[in-house]
Write a sequence for this structure.
């Protein structure tokens, strides 16, 4: 009752320049979502068809059980010799037991097949997302919706397709069986089944969709109210606005309740109609059979069988409801996967795979420089990175985010890029890592254009601490090893010491195996930043990028950490620090000042502080303030 | 976890639910009666049909019973959905009301997220409980009783067998349920870890990509998802097996009834109509119990939400000052007298004594987590001292009406919450009747003019959830505008320039200077830029406060 499509709530934010992924795009193609799911199900089709047949067998056994038992009783009333009933007695026993066993095996087989497929879907969704080179910013809500969308695929198969096709099959068999006894009765049964299995499900779909459309906006608004009242509790209390907000939310809750009460009447009318259809079909079948002079015992079999058959068909009503609720999620998953990206390597080699699913890993980007090739970047090698007149434009006609920026970063050079917010610092970092491609100009690594490097290759040469570094729900060690898989204990110690996290690690009972919690929730903001920095230092790519390395640290700590991080970088490696803070940059080889996407000043710190301009103004402002602060130690 | 099928606290918390529950019970009794009536009529129809005759009254009776049952299904669904809507609305009001009663100190942190989810979509899970499980629960009581009562009159021997075998369903159900529960709990940690792995990996994709590990991780995602499958199948196998056992128990019980009936029928000792009645009714007796069992699982989520909601809204509220208590004058002296604040695991402030004279501008510095925000929280009444007291103009803050006191405060938090409303409403928070020119002045003072000019509908632009659409610098200026509009004698600023770049910081700083002019001000400062205009500077470290005297610039030791 609850899977109404959620309003996205993502307005165009400050990060809206980053291209949106298709996760949110809902295409118009009606049947395409199901087709995509079925295509994904192909490797498991055998198992799924098996599960569907077992489901049909379960329902059929139930129906046959009632029919045979009725025949048995009504025949017994005529007191025939016992041997005439033996077959039926055995059949009743067999059907009774097999119904339960069928149901058990069907559930096991169905769930197993679908869960195997979900494993595939998750891997594919992940592979699709990871193949995107563009930066993606997503809120937690959208991500958890992605997870539940993947589960919608599971529900579509288990609660809609498998029971739906089983019900359809049993319906056909029931009509065929009835036709053997009496064609007019079979006709009546067919009409009843069509109403119960086609008309009512269609009606249920329409009603569910309409109800969802009416309820969803109000539910969404109420969820927002709940967020405002809890997360904004302090603001409301401080400004004496709690009561007014509470009153508004309560009114909305009451309005929602009134709407839900109103909608319930139509929703359950479909279920009521189902009961009516079952009974009236039985009446019609009895009348038709009696009129056609069907033997009395078989009239009973037809009547009882009809009730059971319509009951089976009515399962399609709830399947239709489920389907309606699953559609938005399915459509999103399908839209994501339909981009037709490379098939991920299949771990289950023993499973039947279509010939198109190749076993080895295709590379989406042209890779002229391979890891084993001549010009490939290796760890520890010397590299020269060069920006030549690079211009980046996010939208045609908009002001460029980077405007003819040139920058030379030979091996061993240490450069800082500073500037006010919106100056293009983040764009510069995005260009460096290949997330954004320049509209004009060239970015080269050792003379080769960056775009010619394979996606997995580039981070080994250029990378480090990038914006919004994520801390995984794993141990400190696992988070660090992401930087360099084979790092030994001394390397871990050196990197964490340089980031100022070693003391904390040593103080933990589990040391390196301390769990950092979901999204690093067990760490403070400063500790998370230090962990991310340590990971970047451990990775130690020849061109180390540090985007706001001391974000969230207080000034004293920030200076110490930046100094030790720079000291920990091997001599032949070049470093690019991106910072809004000017302190601690005095030793760097060059400082580039960006404003409005253009380089407005460049030089060493000593030169820049003496020349009039943005850098000197900011330096004086910041230094004066910091001096005041630092002089305040008792 | 609460495993009772019905929580009696519900009746106390939501008295309006009682009537609907009573109607639901009555409908359950009627439904049971109609099931019996329908079977009786059908048995009569079939018993005459054996001879090729049509028993018109019986067939009409059957049709009437079916029609009545259809109406009853509709009534049951409608009443239970109404009940669900009523209960959800009442619990939502209760939950949100609890937030208002307890105050922000109680809501802070993780509880905020939990409460928001619960009051928002969490309670919607109750629909499945009320419309699916509860009516079935009623039927699982009324139908077996009605069936037994009818069969006793038709054939008491069968009734005895039914009565003896019926309890097997709940007994087996409970035994198997415990087994399944234990197995699920053993697997739970593993299941949630494996289940959360996918989300964790997707959320961290940019970082994985930054280290060139995204592609390699696909294999790990697959492996973990496969581990999730294996663990899930383990628990499912037990659940399915218990369903199978219950079904077999029911089948065998029906067979126990049917076999003697058949034998007696064959021997001529039983009328066909009676035999048919017993055959049609017996399975009905076992069905609702099993259906209730399987639906219980689906409504677990709703029951858990219900339990949480009832527990949260019943949490006792700390006593608050009576109405009409004294309101201190914010232009008076603020004194902390050996104030100590202890949280569950840490001590935020130790024995702090401090006097703030009217009109003084005091900056507070110190490492993060030292207790700076706690100091402001004390003045706002979000935090209560565990030792010592705070007086304003000689009045103990513990004895004042917090709302009246807060009217003398303007607060600019570290991260102001912006509401999903228009920008104007966000600024007019707590003062919805502000005249437009006062609003315009506040906008101007907070240097928001350019922001307003850049928005499509100006001040009437609707902000997204949590102020989506504004940058941190812009949000901070909205918070400053709120404070300007408040025009209060005491201003509390909690790192108003944290997370801002220099350009934005300069703008916010200018506005802040205008705001504190002529008022008593406490500024928590993370960045040094705020300290220039302070009269006094306090340093908090480890919960202790030391006073620093600003030295003239020149001693530029670094």
């Amino acid at each position: 009752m609850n899977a109404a499509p959620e309003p996205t709530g993502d307005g165009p934010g400050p990060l809206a320049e980053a291209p949106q992924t298709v996760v949110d795009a809902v295409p118009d193609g009606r049947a395409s979502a199901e087709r995509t799911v079925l295509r994904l199900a192909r490797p498991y089709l055998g198992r799924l068809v098996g599960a569907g047949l077992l489901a049909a067998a379960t329902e059929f056994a139930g129906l046959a059980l009632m029919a045979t038992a009725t025949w048995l009783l009504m025949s017994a009333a005529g007191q025939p010799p016992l041997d005439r009933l033996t077959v039926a007695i055995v059949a009743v026993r067999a059907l009774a037991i097999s119904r339960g066993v069928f149901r058990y095996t069907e559930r096991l087989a169905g769930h197993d097949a679908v869960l195997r497929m979900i494993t595939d879907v998750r891997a594919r969704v992940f592979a699709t997302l990871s193949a995107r080179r563009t930066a993606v910013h997503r809120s937690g809500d959208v991500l958890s919706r992605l997870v539940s969308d993947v589960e919608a695929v599971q529900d579509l198969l288990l609660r809609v397709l498998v029971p739906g096709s089983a019900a359809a099959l049993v319906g056909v068999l029931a009509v065929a069986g009835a036709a053997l006894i009496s064609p007019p009765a079979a006709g009546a049964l067919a009409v009843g089944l069509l109403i119960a299995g086609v008309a009512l499900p269609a009606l249920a779909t329409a009603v569910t969709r309409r109800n969802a459309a009416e309820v969803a906006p109000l539910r969404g608004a109420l969820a927002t109210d709940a967020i405002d009242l809890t997360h904004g509790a302090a603001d409301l209390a401080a400004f004496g606005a709690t009561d007014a907000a509470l009153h508004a939310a309560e009114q909305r809750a009451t309005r929602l309740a009134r709407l839900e009460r109103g909608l319930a009447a139509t929703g359950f009318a479909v279920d009521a109609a189902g009961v009516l259809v079952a009974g009236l079909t039985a009446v019609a079948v009895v009348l038709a059979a009696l009129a056609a002079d069907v033997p009395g015992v078989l009239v009973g079999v037809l009547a009882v069988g009809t009730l059971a058959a319509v009951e089976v068909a009515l399962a399609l009503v709830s399947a239709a409801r489920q389907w309606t609720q699953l559609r938005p999620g399915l459509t999103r998953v399908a839209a994501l996967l339909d981009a037709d990206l490379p098939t991920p390597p299949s771990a289950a080699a023993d499973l039947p795979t279509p010939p198109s699913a190749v076993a080895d890993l295709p590379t989406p980007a042209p890779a002229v420089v391979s890891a084993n090739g001549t010009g490939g970047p290796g760890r520890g090698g010397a590299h020269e990175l060069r920006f030549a007149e690079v211009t980046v434009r996010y939208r045609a006609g908009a002001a460029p985010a980077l405007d003819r920026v040139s920058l030379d970063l030979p091996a061993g050079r240490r450069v800082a890029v500073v500037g006010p917010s919106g100056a293009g610092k983040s764009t510069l970092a995005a260009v460096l890592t290949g997330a954004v491609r320049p509209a004009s100009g060239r970015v080269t690594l050792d003379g080769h254009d960056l775009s010619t490097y394979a996606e997995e290759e580039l981070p080994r040469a250029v990378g480090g601490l990038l914006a919004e570094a994520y801390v995984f729900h794993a141990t400190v060690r696992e988070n660090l090893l992401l930087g360099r898989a084979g790092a030994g204990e001394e390397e871990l110690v050196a990197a964490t010491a340089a980031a100022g996290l070693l003391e904390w690690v040593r103080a933990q009972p589990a040391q390196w195996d301390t769990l950092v919690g979901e999204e690093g929730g067990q760490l403070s903001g400063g500790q998370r930043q230090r962990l991310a920095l340590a990971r970047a230092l451990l990775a130690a790519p020849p061109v180390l990028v540090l985007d706001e390395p001391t974000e969230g640290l207080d000034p004293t700590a920030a200076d110490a950490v930046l100094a030790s991080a720079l000291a920990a970088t091997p001599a032949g490696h070049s470093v690019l620090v991106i910072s809004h803070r000017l302190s601690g940059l005095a030793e760097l080889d060059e400082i580039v000042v960006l404003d409005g996407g253009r380089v407005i000043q460049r030089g060493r710190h000593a030169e820049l502080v003496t020349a009039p301009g943005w850098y000197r103004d900011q330096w004086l402002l910041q230094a004066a303030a910091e001096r005041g602060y630092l002089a305040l130690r008792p | 976890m609460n495993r009772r099928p019905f929580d009696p606290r519900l009746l106390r918390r939501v008295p309006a639910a009682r009537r609907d529950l009573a109607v639901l019970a009555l409908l359950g009794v009627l439904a049971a009666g109609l099931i019996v009536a329908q079977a009786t009529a059908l048995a009569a129809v079939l018993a005459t049909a054996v001879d090729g005759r049509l028993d018109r009254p019986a067939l009409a009776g059957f049709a009437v019973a079916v029609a009545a049952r259809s109406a009853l299904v509709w009534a049951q669904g409608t009443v239970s959905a109404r009940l669900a809507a009523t209960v959800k609305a009442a619990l939502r009001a209760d939950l949100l009301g609890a937030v208002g009663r307890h105050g922000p100190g109680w809501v802070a942190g993780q509880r905020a997220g939990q409460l928001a989810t619960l009051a928002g979509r969490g309670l919607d899970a109750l629909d499945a409980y009320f419309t699916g499980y509860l009516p079935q629960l009623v039927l699982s009581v009324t139908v077996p009783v009605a069936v037994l009562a009818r069969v006793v009159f038709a054939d008491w021997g069968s009734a005895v067998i039914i009565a003896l075998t019926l309890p097997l369903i709940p007994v087996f159900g409970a035994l198997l349920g415990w087994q399944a529960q234990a197995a699920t709990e053993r697997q739970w940690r593993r299941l949630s870890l494996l289940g959360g792995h996918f989300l964790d990996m997707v959320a961290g994709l940019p970082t994985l990509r930054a280290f060139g590990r995204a592609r390699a991780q696909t294999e790990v995602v697959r492996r973990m998802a496969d581990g999730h499958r294996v663990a899930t199948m383990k628990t499912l196998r037990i659940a399915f097996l218990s369903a199978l056992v219950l079904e077999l128990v029911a089948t065998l019980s029906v067979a126990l009834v049917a076999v003697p009936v058949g034998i007696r029928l064959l021997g001529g000792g039983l009328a066909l109509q009676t035999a048919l009645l017993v055959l049609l009714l017996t399975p009905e007796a076992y069905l609702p119990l099993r259906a209730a069992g399987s639906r219980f699982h689906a409504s677990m989520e709703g029951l858990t939400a219900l339990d949480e909601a009832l527990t949260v809204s019943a949490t006792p509220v700390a006593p608050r000052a009576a109405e009409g208590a004294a309101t201190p004058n914010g232009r008076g002296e603020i004194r902390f007298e050996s104030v100590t604040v202890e949280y569950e695991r840490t001590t935020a402030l130790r024995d702090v004594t401090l006097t703030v004279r009217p009109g003084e501008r005091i900056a507070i510095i110190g490492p993060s987590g030292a207790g700076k925000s706690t100091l402001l929280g004390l003045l706002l009444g979000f935090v209560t001292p565990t030792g010592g007291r705070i007086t304003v103009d000689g009045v103990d803050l513990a004895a004042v009406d917090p709302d009246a006191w807060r009217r003398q405060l303007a607060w600019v938090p570290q991260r102001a919450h912006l509401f999903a409303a228009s920008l104007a409403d966000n600024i007019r928070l707590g003062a919805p009747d502000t005249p437009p020119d006062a609003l315009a002045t506040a906008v101007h003072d907070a240097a928001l003019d350019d922001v307003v000019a850049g928005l499509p509908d100006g001040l009437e632009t609707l902000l997204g959830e949590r102020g989506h659409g504004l940058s941190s610098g812009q949000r901070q200026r909205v918070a400053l505008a709120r404070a300007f509009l408040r025009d209060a004698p005491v201003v509390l600023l909690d790192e108003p320039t944290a997370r801002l770049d220099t350009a934005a910081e300069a703008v916010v700083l200018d506005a802040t200077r205008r705001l504190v002019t002529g008022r008593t001000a406490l500024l928590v400062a993370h960045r040094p830029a705020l300290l220039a205009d302070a009269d006094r500077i306090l340093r908090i470290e480890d919960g202790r406060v030391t006073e620093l005297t600003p030295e003239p610039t020149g001693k530029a030791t670094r």
Summary: Strands of chain A lie at 385-392, 402-409, 414-418, 440-445, 448-449, 462-465, 543-547, 574-579, 590-595, 598-603. Confidence is low (pLDDT under 50) at residues 1-30, 340-380, 630-634 of chain A. Chain A touches chain B through 166 residues (CB under 8 Å).
